[in-house]
Specification:
Residues 95-318 form the AB hydrolase-1 domain. Keywords: Signal. By secondary structure, the chain is α/β, with parallel strands linked by helices. It has one domain (37-354, 365-398): Rossmann fold. The protein has helices at 3-28, 52-56, 112-117, 143-157, 169-180, 206-212, 214-221, 223-234, 248-260, 262-274, 308-321, 381-384, 386-398; strands at residues 36-37, 40-41, 66-70, 73-74, 77-78, 82-87, 93-98, 120-125, 135-136, 162-167, 185-192, 293-299, 331-334, 369-374. The protein has a nine-stranded mixed β-sheet with strand order 3-6-8-7-10-11-12-14-13, with helices on both faces.
């Protein structure tokens, strides 16, 4: 046999077995059909039905509501599940309510009946890593993640356009959504105790700094620490309602999520460090706010997000909505006779260098941006000052 033929035979003997084995493996183990799932931690549905967390926050907590689990794809990936609820007439005015950092959609419960009675179709959902929604592993819980989640959810329920309302971190998410998808948002936007104007995580309060640390994530992942948290959560919290009995279930629910849901602490820490809690000024300065009516609500005794932040947000939005010849002033209403905590700042000077198309001419007497301060209300004012909040929100949405 010639040397060249011997070499060819040797190469064949070396190549054929691996090819045969590869073919066998591919035939025996075909790739999974459809998009690849994103690995994630389960939400509250993974706990027993009689668990304390699910007693406070059951899956059927929306009276007369409907809903389900959103399982959509984003490119080649199957996004983690989102739990959502719908209430109100199907042909009603659509509005989506976005909750904040640690308390899931339950924070909006007192507002659902009056909104439904006013003829609204209400959409609520749990953000990734909270409540009944999954917590994607390894994800950055930032504005992009949450804006994408809301966009996919609207696609799932078939809504082409909606009003948007957000509380706390949900206000910053609402702002980012207006900026990213202005064509999906109706004219009216409601921001309640909105976060987002803290520039960096290092500027957060001391407790938030600790919670945003990667060390907390590592400790929360430790089985011994997690077991301790679960034992702590199983005890009755006698002091939970001291001074603020209305908020006791909310604080207990936060503690139970932290103890029982592996993804909760990671999601909160990531959102504090790199998410929609800080550095969101851009979300309130975009041209997406041009021509919108914005209601901003805040409690005067809010020690989580100072009420002065709402005045600053209002000024930023007003600056984005008006041309340079406008005054950029924002109307502030007080629900009782209390002193204004801080003066309203004017739009920053760097806005003057930016050009915006002229906004639609407002109706006579129409106020484009309105800030309303609720006396003696803290950060959970949708829960503790429902009457005042409902009165202002429903009246605003009627307009």
């Amino acid at each position: 046999m010639p040397p060249s033929a011997s070499r060819c035979l040797a190469y064949l003997l070396l190549l054929v077995p691996p090819l045969v084995v590869s073919f066998y493996l591919l035939a025996s183990f075909p790739p999974p059909p459809g998009p690849l799932p994103v690995p994630s931690y389960a939400g509250l549905a993974s706990l027993p039905p009689d668990s304390r967390a699910r007693q406070i926050y059951s899956e059927d907590w929306v009276e007369g509501g409907e809903g389900g689990v959103c399982r959509l794809t984003n490119g080649a990936l199957a996004v983690p599940q989102t739990r959502y609820w719908l209430a109100g007439p199907e042909n009603g005015k659509k509005i989506v309510l976005i909750h904040g950092l640690s308390i899931p959609a339950l924070i909006w419960r007192p507002l659902i009946p009056p909104l439904v009675a006013a003829g609204h179709r209400v959409l609520l959902y749990d953000l990734y890593g909270r409540g009944y929604s999954a917590a994607p592993i390894g994800a950055a819980y930032d504005a992009q993640l949450y804006v994408t989640q809301l966009a996919l959810l609207l696609q799932h329920v078939g809504w082409q356009k909606t009003r948007v309302a957000g509380v706390s971190m949900g206000g910053a998410i609402a702002g980012a959504f207006v900026t990213a998808f202005p064509d999906l948002v109706e004219r009216d936007v409601v921001l309640v105790a909105s976060a987002g104007l803290v520039e960096e995580a290092s500027d957060l309060p001391r407790t938030a700094k600790v919670m945003s640390s990667p060390v907390i994530q590592a400790l929360a992942a430790n089985p011994l620490i997690n077991a301790y948290l679960r034992r702590l959560a199983s005890k009755t919290d006698h002091d939970a309602g001291a001074g603020e009995p209305q908020e006791a279930p909310l604080r207990e629910l936060v503690r139970l999520q932290s103890a029982h849901l592996p993804g909760f602490n990671r999601a909160v820490s990531s959102s504090l460090r790199a998410g929609p809690v800080t550095g969101m000024r851009w979300a309130f300065e975009s041209e997406g706010w041009v021509g919108r009516r914005v209601l901003i609500l805040h409690g005067t005794t809010d020690y989580t997000v100072p009420s002065a932040h709402s005045a600053r947000i209002g000024a930023l939005i007003e600056g984005a909505s008006r041309n340079r010849s406008s005054s950029g002033e924002v109307r502030v209403d007080l629900l009782s006779s209390i002193p204004l905590p801080t003066p309203i700042p004017t739009p920053s000077s760097h806005r003057q260098a930016q050009k915006h198309p002229p906004p639609p001419t407002p109706k006579d007497g129409e106020q484009r941006v309105r800030v309303t301060l609720v006396a003696d209300a803290g950060h959970a004012l949708t829960w503790t000052h429902t009457k005042e909040v409902v009165e202002v929100v429903v009246k605003f949405l009627k307009g």
